[in-house]
Design brief:
This protein has 4 helices and 11 strands. A hairpin with a 5-residue loop joins strand 4 and strand 5. Helix 1 packs antiparallel against helix 3. The chain is globular and about 50 Å long. The model has no long low-confidence stretch (mean pLDDT 96).
Length: 243
């Protein structure tokens, strides 16, 4: 039986979503999309809380790519729409479109996710947890994920951050959007205010928990700034910013 997997709702750009430009911030946009995807999955009973209760399993988002055309200002109302576009057996891709009041797409995103067992930490087939596989919408974000062609020797150390309570989410490890915040901290406020971002791609490659120390590295190459975050020598996050 097919279900309606397209979830759309209006959201107001409140103070909680603002950065110092008094517009929707970069990581704030990622958090808004995270909220919308969670609500989308919840609308057909495939959200993380349901999976934990029914299957002792949880969602892991492994990659995300964002395209930015504009950033809505404080008090503006946007429409956020999310939907899965495939069921690949072990993974799915989810598109999200944020439109302004004129109906113009200002931010689009594609995310890759899979389900893991809490017991084994091994992937679970999506069909085994009731994830839809029929009549899924066509993708609107078709740009492929990339392999970052940057040698480890090209990165320079930026700073380090100890993982504390405020970075932790309900899975008891650092929330995905917090890695984006940590990556943004390689820039100054002045730089970010004067260089509007066009594209961001992130790869989540590991988990970190309270008490671990994260080391942040950056590299500017071919008009992009690449960031890696490591716990000890273990890569847990990488991304690039295109301005």
């Amino acid at each position: 039986m097919s279900v309606n997997v397209i979830y759309s709702t209006e959201r107001k750009i409140s103070s909680a979503y603002l950065d110092s430009s008094v517009r929707l911030g970069i990581s704030h946009a990622a958090k808004m999309i995270q909220d919308n995807v969670t609500e989308c999955f919840g609308s057909f009973s495939c959200d993380g809380v349901t999976y934990k209760q029914k299957y002792n399993a949880f969602w892991v988002f492994t990659k995300a790519k964002f395209s930015f055309a504009d950033f809505p200002a404080w008090k503006e109302t946007v429409t956020t729409t999310s939907f899965p576009v495939d069921n690949g057996g072990l993974r799915t891709h989810i598109n999200t479109v944020i439109k302004d009041k004129e109906g113009r797409a200002v931010i689009t995103a594609n995310q890759e996710a899979c389900v893991l067992s809490f017991e084994t930490h091994r992937p679970v087939k999506l069909d085994q947890v009731g994830f839809p596989s029929e009549n899924l919408p066509e993708a609107v974000f078709t740009a492929p994920f990339e392999r970052f062609e940057v040698d480890a020797s090209e990165y320079e150390f930026a700073y380090e951050q100890k993982v504390r309570y405020s970075l932790i989410d309900m899975s008891h490890h650092v929330n995905n959007t917090e890695y984006i915040n940590l990556a943004l901290d390689v820039f100054t406020e002045e730089y970010l205010l004067s260089h509007p971002i066009k594209e961001l791609e992130v790869h989540y490659t590991g988990e970190t928990k309270e008490g671990e120390t994260l080391k942040v590295y950056k590299c500017t190459k071919d008009s992009r700034t690449y960031v890696q975050i490591k716990a000890e020598d273990r890569l847990v996050f990488e991304c690039y910013f295109l301005f």
